[in-house]
Design goal:
By secondary structure, the chain is an alpha/beta fold. It has 12 helices and 13 strands. 32% of the residues lie in helices and 22% in strands. It is globular and about 80 Å long.
């Protein structure tokens, strides 16, 4: 058991991490490195999330921000309570809720007398309600896995707020990007500034986000949807309360590991060593089993329903973590049929065991069916929460680059053509037009994947 003196409450970010795997709670609390830390794409996505949150805040021009960056959680929590008790009606941004062993921060908290609106902002695409009028539910009526982590987040915040104000009525909401809406503000993303601030003594970076455009225009013309989630929060509350109590006991007064059996889900563990920090949460859990090659975690479609995940789980439980230990006969659906995924898994295991490359029997017939000229195409696109141009939806696709290598006859030279958008305009039409001009109307087009 790893421990240290740590008299502090369980933060909501720690709760969210521990819900994916209880073992990760100690890794996060001790500041272990993750694969997310230096991922430039994830930083780009997080920038979109900060902008979405700022757009939501701008809908409340009288909102008051609780500054916690330089004051610490305790001071921010005291300031929050002071303002909530002193005001009959008030809107707070980043309200800090501290009750006993639990700590939460709300994106937007609206107080109207004895009622609260608790709004959690997510840069997730909201596609609107489905025909069942239960958009957050699976086919059997439970919370769909796609939504569970978002809803547990707002449930945790609601729980802490209700513990602080037991007589109040709390209405929880998710605020998300509405797929059906657009914006008429061109280059909206360019009107934001984002600064990441490192506060001495704080384990996390703080972010200063500012909107430089016309806030009143953005209030009239935004693409956000505010969805009530009262029912979902009430359904999740018992499980969230039980889990949060367990996790809180593991961080206060001492940090204690919560032993968790290793499993196929460890494939997605983000707590891996970095170039600058040798601590490795994955290896802490797996030990020598994590160094076995080829690893069973490399199995194709591991984690998806099917025989591969069942077989991997069985082997891991018996402390066998080599891909070569997989029984190929076990790679089948529950009804015994060998589907496309299971067939590919069998090919992978068989070739790994024989140390050979796999070549499809259909490859030569496919190649024989190609007609010159051959066009080998690569292209780049982007889909982010904030629409790039007027008239676009959130997460609308922008195609901004293509390159093409053409061989016009067998043994012929390779001709290269390329296009890159350099104008501040919607590029998709020019992308398609220029690519069509480059490849003409004959021959075969080869790409890595459809898009």
């Amino acid at each position: 058991t790893q421990s240290r003196t740590m008299p502090r409450p369980l933060a909501i970010s720690e709760f969210n991490t521990a819900r994916t795997c209880p073992e990760k709670l100690s890794h996060k609390a001790l500041g272990y490195p993750t694969t997310f830390d230096s991922d430039p794409y994830l930083r780009l996505l997080s920038a979109g999330g900060y902008m979405v949150k700022q757009i939501a805040k701008l809908q409340y021009p009288d909102g008051i921000a609780i500054d916690y960056a330089g004051t610490g959680a305790q001071a921010a929590a005291e300031r929050t309570i002071e303002m909530l008790r002193a005001s009959e009606n008030v809107v707070l941004f980043e309200a800090t809720l501290l009750c006993g062993s639990k700590l939460a921060r709300t994106d937007i908290l609206v107080k109207r007398g004895a009622e609260f609106d608790l709004l959690e902002v997510k840069a997730k695409l909201w596609k609107g309600p489905d025909d069942s009028c239960a958009p957050f539910r699976g086919k059997r009526g439970g919370i769909a896995s796609e939504w569970k982590r978002y809803l547990e987040d707002v449930t945790f915040q609601t729980m802490v707020l209700e513990e602080l104000f037991p007589e109040a009525v709390v209405h929880p909401y998710l605020v998300m990007c509405d797929k059906a809406r657009t914006t008429s503000i061109d280059e909206l993303h360019s009107l934001f500034t984002i600064r990441r601030l490192t506060i001495e003594g704080s384990p996390i970076d703080h972010v200063d986000v500012r909107f430089l455009g016309d806030a009143s225009s953005l209030r009239r013309d935004n693409f956000l949807a505010t969805i009530p989630v009262d029912r979902e929060v009430r359904d999740l509350m018992p499980a969230v309360r039980t889990a949060s109590d367990e996790f809180a006991q593991s961080v206060t007064p001492e940090l204690l590991r919560i032993p968790t059996p290793i499993s196929p889900s460890c494939k997605s563990c983000e707590y891996r060593a970095s170039r600058t920090d040798p601590r490795d949460g994955f290896m802490d859990c797996w030990g020598p089993l994590g160094a076995v090659e080829p690893s069973i975690l490399e199995l194709y479609k591991l984690g998806a329903p099917g025989g591969g995940t069942r077989e991997a789980g069985r082997l891991i439980q018996s402390r066998q973590t080599c891909l070569l230990d997989v029984d190929e006969d076990a790679l089948a659906n529950a009804d015994g049929k060998v589907g496309a995924d299971a067939q590919r898994q069998r090919v992978q295991v068989g070739c790994a065991r024989s140390n050979i490359e796999w070549v499809s029997d259909r490859l030569m017939s496919v190649l024989d069916g190609l007609r010159y000229p051959l066009h080998f195409i690569d292209f780049e696109t982007s889909r982010l929460a904030i629409p790039y141009h007027s008239g676009m939806h959130p997460y609308g696709m922008v195609a901004f680059q293509w390159s093409c290598h053409t061989i016009r006859e067998a043994g012929g030279p390779i001709e290269h053509a390329a296009w890159l958008n350099s104008e501040r305009v919607f590029p998709n039409f020019e992308f398609a037009s220029s690519l069509r001009d480059a490849i003409g109307g004959g021959g075969s087009v080869l790409t890595w994947a459809t898009h």
